[in-house]
Amino acid sequence: QGQLVESGGGLVQPGGSLRLSCAASASIFSLGSKAWYRQAPGKQRELVAIMQSGGSITYADSVKGRFTISRDNAKNTVYLQMNSLKPEDTAVYYCNSGYYSGSRYIDYWGQGTQVTVSS
Predict the structure, then answer these.
(1) In whole angstroms, how large is the CA radius of gyration of the chain?
(2) How many of the other CB atoms lie within 10 Å of CB of 95?
(3) What is the pLDDT of residues 44-77, one digit of tens each?
(4) How far is CA 98 from CA 86, 101, 116, in A?
């Protein structure tokens, strides 16, 4: 059974930094893509960053140059380094892991971690 557990959220002032962590169970860490999504109050969940299994990375335009997704294979952990945070980055951030098993797409979600950017 796959499992994702996020941590690292909190309250930060505009211009500050946070690093989110997503610890994945070993059974799913090496499979497929890893991504971070976020959902602000009253808005749809949106993709923030995705790292494909081949290593390519895509960022949402709104976070390019400020956020960095990375992984530590020894720790089965994916990170999201967030710099120059803005109030509009306030949201619940979710970790996602997805892969294809034949034609079937299987994905897992973490429970989410709150990020609040406010002075």
Answers:
(1) 14
(2) 27
(3) 999 999 999 888 999 999 999 999 999 999 999 9
(4) 29, 10, 27
